[in-house]
Amino acid sequence: MQLVTVTALGVGGATMVGALLGFVMKKIPHKFNDLVLGFAAGVMLAAAILGLVLPSLEQAGSHGVWTVIAGIGAGAVFLNLLDRFLPHLHNLAGVDTEKHQNVQQLNKILLFVAAIAIHNLPEGLAAGVGFGGGDVSNAITVATGIALQNIPEGMVIIAPMLAAGISKKRTLLLALGTGFVEVLGTFLGYMVVTLSTAILPFMLAFAGGTMLYVISDEMIPETHSHGFERESTYALLIGFCLMLVMDFYMG
């Protein structure tokens, strides 16, 4: 349980560290933003495949592929349904949409922040269920990968929120909240799986599905919208390869 607590604070704290760095830097150039986000996408992609989807497939049994597919699909649909909650996010951000000049841009930013927060929950669950399932080595690999991509994630959500007219205080609280969600998810995942390991394959695939959805729907399009798509692609590959190395030597 002590290792789970350290992990929870580590994965959640990484987002908070990234948020504070983003707050200090404030105006992040598009090129740097796209490179960091591309690197984070590569780390997330590797963590989703190596630490979530493949372990889910290994543990799901004879009909495991269908459990994995169902979990990935459920995770993606879950994030897709966030669109319906955007009006509530406006209130949470403290922004008056009637006075806001670009509500569509605000929606996009808030959806991205909400996606980060929501997918942090199953990420935390993934870290927690790994320990609950007894595979400490794989759990540490997943948790390390999550923590690595949480730092740039925390950084890149600050500048867009400030630019959208969200106050500095609300921006910091929302960013820190995305990390706190992960802390709760880690403890929840550990407790749930210790009660029933039968749901472990589905939960791992669900977490992988949310991460894959965010990568494809939010992160890659964002990194390819400012003219730095080639550099961002190489950054993604570097992030992916870094996780491959970590998985090889820590697995």
Characterise this structure.
The chain is built from 10 helices and no strands. Residues 90-94 and 96-101 have low confidence and may be disordered. It has helices at residues 2-25, 30-59, 64-80, 86-93, 103-132, 136-156, 158-163, 168-195, 200-223, 229-250. It has 251 residues and is mainly alpha-helical. It has one domain (2-250). Helix 3 (64-80) packs across helix 9 and helix 5 (103-132) runs antiparallel to helix 9.
How many structural domains does the protein architecture include?
A: 1
Uncertain segments: 90-94, 96-101
Secondary-structure content class: mainly alpha
Helix content: over 70%
Q: How much strand?
A: under 5%
Distance between the termini: 21 Å
| H/E element order | HHHHHHHHHH
Care to count the β-strands? 0
User: What's the quaternary structure here?
Assistant: single chain
Largest sheet composition: none
- Overall pLDDT, averaged? 75
Count of runs of 4 or more consecutive helical residues: 10
The outline comes out as globular
Could you give the topology of this structure?
Layout lengths: L1 H24 L4 H30 L4 H17 L5 H8 L9 H30 L3 H21 L1 H6 L4 H28 L4 H24 L5 H22 L1
Helix pairs in contact: 1-5, 1-6, 1-8, 2-3, 2-6, 2-9, 2-10, 3-9, 4-5, 5-6, 5-8, 5-9, 6-10
What are the salient characteristics of this protein?
mainly alpha; 251 residues; 10 helices
Please sum up the structure shown.
The chain is mostly helical and 251 residues long.
